[in-house]
Design brief:
Layout: E1 2-5, E2 23-30, E3 37-41, E4 57-60, E5 63-67, E6 72-76, E7 82-85, E8 90-92
Antiparallel strand pairs: 1-2, 2-3, 4-5, 5-6, 6-7, 7-8
């Protein structure tokens, strides 16, 4: 799976599902089979040693993530599902 948390944003995530009892919408995750979704998590990936610098790309199995100065994009190249995250907007696909 690929996960990205966002610290600063001007948009709001959709309402949390009823079964989410943790923090909702501070990040997005895409796994091997399903469309990307907002995270329901009690942790964060901020401060992780695996930070993708602007202009960088990373491939791990079927997942590719690219960091640009305006957005982060991650995609499962096998399923076609993924996401983009930016301060002004997001896209889940």
């Amino acid at each position: 799976m690929a996960r990205c948390d966002i610290a600063r944003r001007t948009w709001q995530p959709p309402p949390a599902p009823a079964d989410c009892e943790l923090d909702w919408g501070s990040g997005v995750v895409v796994d091997r089979t399903q469309e990307a979704t907002f995270t329901c998590a009690g942790d964060t990936v901020f401060g992780s040693r695996d930070t993708l610098a602007y202009g960088g790309s990373l491939r791990a199995g079927d997942f590719v993530c690219s960091s640009h100065n305006k957005e982060m994009r991650c995609e499962n190249t096998k399923s076609g599902h993924g996401f983009t995250l930016a301060v002004e907007q997001y896209d889940l696909f």
